[in-house]
Each structure stands twice: as structure tokens, then as C-alpha cells.
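Format notes (please read before filing issues)

Several people have asked whether sequences and C-alpha cells are stored in separate files. They are not. Every record keeps both together, in the order shown below: the sequence lines, then the C-alpha cell lines. Line labels are part of the format and must not be stripped during preprocessing.
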Amino acid sequence: MQIELARTIARAAFRSSRELGALVPVLKRQLSAEEFGIYSKAIATAIASIQVDIVNKLTTEHSGLEAEIEVAIKRDGHY
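Then the structure lines:
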């Protein structure tokens, strides 16, 4: 895979994780404790899966991508 495509996929993965994470406070306010527990765990699992199944594979294939992501996060607060 070319680096530009890897960057595009990594950005989409981080964006998806941010969007899922942003739902947690909303769910906490609007759901029962039981429902919140179910959905917050599902969101955490999805975010972890995005990291392991997508981002880690990309950074393994493209050695400089991890450093690039870290620099962007420090500089901009996101990738």
C-alpha cells in the first residue's frame, strides 16, 4: 500500500475513534446505567479494534507513519 493511502486510512480511523468517543458523554446523560454500560463497552471495544486492526497494521507497514502521527497529535491535537 502506498503511504498516501495509508495516511488517508489512518486519518479516517482516528476520526472514527474520536466520533465514537464523543458519544460517551451523551450516552451517559441519556441512558440508564445498565444501557450505558453496554454501549460504552461496545464503543471501547470498537475503538480498540480500530487501533489494533487498522492503525497498528498501517504503522507496521510504514515505519515512519507512527512518528508522523505522534507529531501531528502533539502539534494539532489530532491526526
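For reference, the curators noted about this record: The radius of gyration is 15 Å. The mean pLDDT is 96.
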